[in-house]
Amino acid sequence: MKKREAGLWELYVSFLKIGGLTFGGGYAMLPMLQREVIDRHHWVDEQEVLDIYAIGQCTPGIIAVNTATMIGYRKRGIAGAIVATLGEVTPSLVIISTLASILMSVQDSVWIQRAFGGIRVAVCALITQAIVNLAKKSLVDWQTILLYLLVIGASVFAHLSPIAVVLIAIVYGLMVQHLKRRAA
Amino acid sequence: MIYLALYWEFFKIGLFSLGGGLATLPFLYKLAETRPQWISTQAIADMIAISESTPGPIGINMATFAGFQVGGAFGGLVATLGEITPSVIIIILIARFLTAFDKNKYVKDAFYGLRPAVVALITFALIKLMGVTLFASGIVHPIETVLYAVLVIGVLVWKKVHPLIWIVLGAIAGVLFQLPS
Predict the structure, then answer these.
(1) Which of A137, B56, B114, B116 could in theory staple to A148 by disulfide, Cβ–Cβ 3.0 to 4.6 A?
(2) Is residue A2 part of a domain?
(3) What's the confidence (pLDDT) of residue A180?
(4) B5 at interface of A, judged by CB pairs closer than 8 A
């Protein structure tokens, strides 16, 4: 497959479509991403998309945004990175701002309050589901289970900030893996 | 200058949240603690519901929503730009100077520790959310708790069903049982 050049406007429109047609984050964007940047525009190949997506997962920030920035950069440098990223977030800005303003004007309605009373319970259930899925991939041995319990304990009793937790967890990961290698 | 503060708070969230959408949740709860005039714990639950049932990355939707509540449409724009700025800078640096970043030994080791910690942070966010939804000042809300149990079984059995469906079912139950009880 011969890779094609990308115009800035084309990049913006493509990522606008990806952002506007993907529900939820993470893996949900992959099918749309593949359709646009591989099948339709031939900007990158299959393996490149998977690599870029992997990098997006292990860098700070939103995975979908990281992926858009990376592809934009590879095709058109810094301008491409910015344009693709803005395309990805444009649908959110428009849709959420519209919905938020509608919600603010109807929030005193008793029907809306009851609906949201139930919706909040549904959100608890959805987050529980996400935690179960993530735990299967993350809690792989006793060291990771121990860290999981310690972080919950520290959050409940010591009010440790999430930023501190992230930094401590990085050091913990490096140390445990280092010790494991030495023991092996 | 409220927009500057908004940009800075979401810049920090973009810089320190690792692992996608829901990973920004613990930071939003922290924000609700440090700046209660901006967002309430209750509002975060509504934000998650809206963000999961509309197109676009959940993390970006939540940033836009939170920013909107603080400073209207412009506030939404500022919060979103704040959240994506670190990503754009870091990704450009990686694309320029680091090849095979995701295959690096130290990156993998760091993520071995980061993943369980992020799951723990999200679990803590869920505990807080349940604290205002299923319980209130030590009293268990029976209707909400039963509804939660039913929905958890539902989402774990029918994994492929879209979140929007569960949210709509929750809304219908809320109207039928006249929640919050």
Answers:
(1) B116
(2) no
(3) 94
(4) no
Pick the range with the lowest mean pLDDT from A3-12, A23-32, A152-161, B107-116. Answer: A23-32
Domain total in chain B: 2
* Contact assignment for A128 to B155 by CB distance below 8 Å: yes
Domain that holds residue A156: 110-183
- B25, B102: one domain: yes
Helices (H), chain A: 8-21, 30-33, 46-57, 63-106, 110-138, 142-158, 162-183
Structure token digits, residue B65 = 């929503």
Put simply, the answer to whether B46 touches A119 (Cβ < 8 Å) is yes
pLDDT at B139 over 80: yes
C-alpha distance from B4 to closest chain A C-alpha (Å): 18
Tokens matching residue A93: 């800005």
Contact A59 B19 (CB under 8 A): no
CB pairs under 8 A between A and B: 369
Residue A3 lies in a domain: no
Q: Nearest C-alpha of chain A: how many angstroms from B1?
A: 21
- Residue B81 structural domain: 2-133
Tell me whether residues B60 and A89 touch, CB distance under 8 A.
yes
Same domain (yes/no): B9, B61: yes
Q: Are residues B81 and B159 in the same domain?
A: no
Cα three-residue angle A181-A139-B11, rounded to 5 degrees: 95
Residues of B in contact with A29 (CB under 8 A): 57
ipTM of the complex: 0.86
Does A117 lie in the same domain as A101? no
Residue A137 lies in a domain: yes
Q: Helices A110-138 & B142-157, crossing angle to 10 degrees?
A: 50
- State the smallest CA–CA distance between residue B41 and chain A in angstroms: 11
Examine the pLDDT at A146 and tell me if it is beyond 80.
Answer: yes
